[in-house]
Design brief:
This protein has no helices and 13 strands. It has strands at about 10, 15-20, 25-35, 35-45, 45-50, 55-60, 65-70, 75-80, 85-90, 95-100, 105-110, 115-120, 130-135. A 7-stranded antiparallel sheet has the order 1-2-7-8-13-10-11, with no helix packed on it. It is mainly beta. The chain is about 0% helix and about 60% strand. It has a single domain (about 10-135), classed as Immunoglobulin-like.
Amino acid sequence: MAVIEELIRSEEDGSISFGNYQLAKKAKKSDVEVRGDRYKVKTFRESTRLERNDSLVFESEPGTTVSHFLEDEAGVSFMLEGPGDAQVILSLAEEASYRVFINGEDNGIMDTGMGGKLVLTVEMGDAENVKVQIARS
């Protein structure tokens, strides 16, 4: 997988890809329309943030590249690439339970609170990219 030079793009499968963790300075792209929603991405080596209609969808520290990000009422899935382990914040349904899978391995159930935030650490190890799946329980 490679960084997203255009910062955000739609994929043929209906997902989006975004982020460029190799940038030394913060870059952003706003007002990208995908399926009727407006997206904004801010990205560089320290952080990657995706907003939909002015609300947080995804944030990582340090910065990452996210490909094939697909979200629906059942959960979210994406591929993650970065320079090392990343802390990821996802905005999901409030007060809900989600089963977390990283590279197919079940990492248990995590709950969101009133704000709907799910915080997880993705260990990159030697992997070029890691498959993350979050399924609503």
